[in-house]
Write a structure and sequence with these properties.
The chain is mainly alpha-helical. The protein has 2 domains: 75 residues, no CATH class; 220 residues, MetI-like fold (Orthogonal Bundle), CATH 1.10.3720. It is 78% helix and 0% strand. The relative contact order is 0.14. The model has no long low-confidence stretch (mean pLDDT 83). It is a multi-pass membrane protein. Belongs to the binding-protein-dependent transport system permease family. GO terms for molecular function: dipeptide transmembrane transporter activity. Keywords: Cell membrane, Membrane, Transmembrane, Transmembrane helix, Transport.
């Protein structure tokens, strides 16, 4: 892999992270009204001016905006996101506690989507127009049409309340009860992975059909290569590039989709403090979580580009 290409991609990701951080900082100052006054306002009653001035000093809002911006970036470089305004708990500690749970949910949903969507797409392409192809295409259209919170609610109704095969929701640490942890993870993983599985099925099927129609596939078959070698070496390898692109893009959207899934299944990830922070106007917590999600999205895109370059060396050479 071209080292200069990799360095350029990493540098681009860092610049984008700085731009996102700047946008988040400016968004805080573009909110109508005084953030300190909004935080202290309850029931439409104007807060005491002395309390507003004290909170403005605590948040650093009384300083020039460039000074605030410098302090904000300096804090990010030191991994200091400040303290929550609600309970004075470090924002970074709260994120460090809950982020692994959200990532676990996203990873489980993505893994389920890959295991189901990609092989199903390959099989449907190899048996184009068959019964499986028609049924699977119809099912994926239905999965894409139904919102994730509806699927989550139906899963709870069917598997938890009616059949009583799975718990309705909650969380149990993996180290304490691995079996219960996996049971609690199964339904939310299905809910969050259903849409991605449908997308991967469609993209894999389309990419496989396109690859199967190429001349090099007919040439490989004419040379007498084994069908399995033609499928995995010549067809699937070339069909994976667009699939990986779609996978990377939708993994980023899963970061937002987990909010509803975690709420439905009472999964204690990042959604709980995010919703609580929005309702309580806890700006440091909101900024910290938004930045974390944004950086994760950039990291996922960087990994996708790395996989592209690994599968197709021409990408890094360009």
């Amino acid at each position: 892999m071209n080292a200069a290409w990799l360095a350029h991609r990493v540098a681009t990701a860092l610049v984008l992270a700085w731009i996102v951080a700047t946008i988040v900082f400016l968004a805080l100052h573009m909110v109508p009204g005084d953030p300190a006054e909004l935080l202290l306002s309850t029931g439409g009653i104007s807060p005491d001016p002395a309390s507003v001035a004290e909170l403005r000093e605590k948040l650093g809002l009384d300083r020039p905006i460039l000074v605030q911006y410098g302090a904000f970036l300096s804090g990010l470089l030191r991994a200091d996101l400040g303290n929550s305004l609600v309970d004075d708990y470090p924002v970074l500690s709260e994120i460090a506690l809950r982020l692994p749970r959200t990532l676990e949910l996203i990873f489980a949903g993505t893994l389920l989507a890959i295991v189901v969507g990609v092989p199903a797409g390959v099989y449907a392409a190899l048996h184009r127009g068959g019964t499986f192809d028609k049924v699977a295409s119809g099912v994926t259209a239905l999965l894409l049409a139904v919102p994730v919170f509806v699927v989550g609610t139906l899963l709870v109704l069917i598997f938890a309340q009616t059949l009583r095969l799975m718990p309705a929701g909650g969380f149990a640490p993996l180290t304490q009860d691995p079996v219960l942890h996996l049971k609690l993870l199964t339904l939310p993983a299905i809910a969050i992975g259903k849409g991605l599985a449908a997308v991967l099925f469609r993209m894999t099927r389309a990419a496989m059909l396109d690859a199967l129609a190429n001349d090099y596939v007919r040439t490989a078959r004419a040379k007498g290569l084994a069908p399995g070698r033609v499928l995995f070496v010549h067809v699937l390898r070339n069909a994976l590039n667009p699939v990986i692109t779609v996978l990377g893009l939708h993994m980023g959207t899963l970061l937002g989709g987990t909010v509803l899934v975690e709420y439905v299944f009472n999964w204690p990830g990042l959604s709980t403090p995010l919703l609580r922070a929005v309702e309580g106007r806890d700006y440091p917590m909101v900024v910290g979580i938004v930045l974390t999600i944004s950086v994760l999205f950039l990291l996922i895109n960087l990994i996708v580009e790395f996989l592209h370059a690994t599968l197709d060396p021409r990408v890094s050479a360009s």
